[in-house]
Amino acid sequence: MVPASPRLSHQKLRALQTVIQARLLPWFATHQRDLPWRRNRTPYRVWISEAMLAQTRVDTVIPYFRRFMKRFPSLRALATAPLDDVLKQWEGLGYYSRARNLHKAAQMIQEHYRGRFPRTYADIHALPGVGPYTAAAIASLAFNLDHAVLDGNVIRVLCRLTGFDQDPSRQKTKQGLQSLADRLLVPGQAGTCNEAMMELGAICCTPSSPTCKQCPLQSVCVAFRTDTVDQLPVPRPKKAVPHKEVGAAVVRDDKGHVLIAQRLATSMLGGLWEFPGGTQEPNETMPECVARELKEELDIDIDVGDRLMIVRHAYSHFTIALHVYWATIRSGTPCPIECADVRWCTIDELRTYAFSRADLHIVDRLCANRG
Known about the structure:
This protein is α+β, with helices and mostly antiparallel strands. It has helices at 10-31, 43-53, 58-71, 75-80, 83-90, 96-112, 121-125, 132-143, 152-162, 171-184, 190-203, 222-225, 286-298, 357-370, and strands at 243-251, 258-262, 273-274, 277-279, 301-314, 319-331, 341-345. The protein is 44% helix and 14% strand.
């Protein structure tokens, strides 16, 4: 039977923990990056940074974190803000359900915890949008509770350190790696240990071209000793990425206003604004797709004009080609049938609404054409 986790004797486990405490923690004290969420550390700032950092590069998150903290400097400020404002500050960062969950959780904390961030792993984990990793990160970094984090960086370090050659994306394997991370944690130094492991994976034990000669754990790394660093972790089997052809309309009136629609809160990109449209069906031309979608979504009949542009965009699980057309209303008054709201606005006003990254390309083109 294939082991679901690295098999280490008690002696080897203790030796690894000793090396981590003796070498990794001093290395981290010297080499850690100066990141804004590491200053003035509070549970609120840790929470926001972890929500932003999940599946997102640090250099991308830094300006978003600074703007978000300036706009919502406290948990109360976030809880009392309109959701539209929160989504606007999140605009372009992706994974918008995180922003909605932050807003919902902030309101929950205000109501059930009198505005004070919960201090136990179980209570933190119970917040909307907070999974095991984020709960462990907040518990350890904000309250120094002994909970080990397991993100992509830590998984890579553990697989190489132990020479573990099984697919870490499998649930049982991930559970085994979590157990190992828990056992390697130095009691009473959880926050520092977690950050040190993540930092090692981020700046030294990188996915490609790792700087093994600078690694404080090189002497106990099985992958380095067996020359298998480039083979670990075992890559996840690749799956075909679905692709969608999508149509959208920039509907104009005789005053130069354009029509935008707000997505349902329960849908993907919920709460964001968009230029209305949808996915092309088989045996349907793109102009026919756009006309059908606006009839179904807004109950209007439109005349589809020239194509404005094509936006190609990749989401986490599929890609799209967004075909954007000019359009005018032939009959009907726009009403939100399959969306949350509709608005007519000027080109200048578009920047005040929160759009997805794909729709922002359309906003940019409209603003540029206007000039």
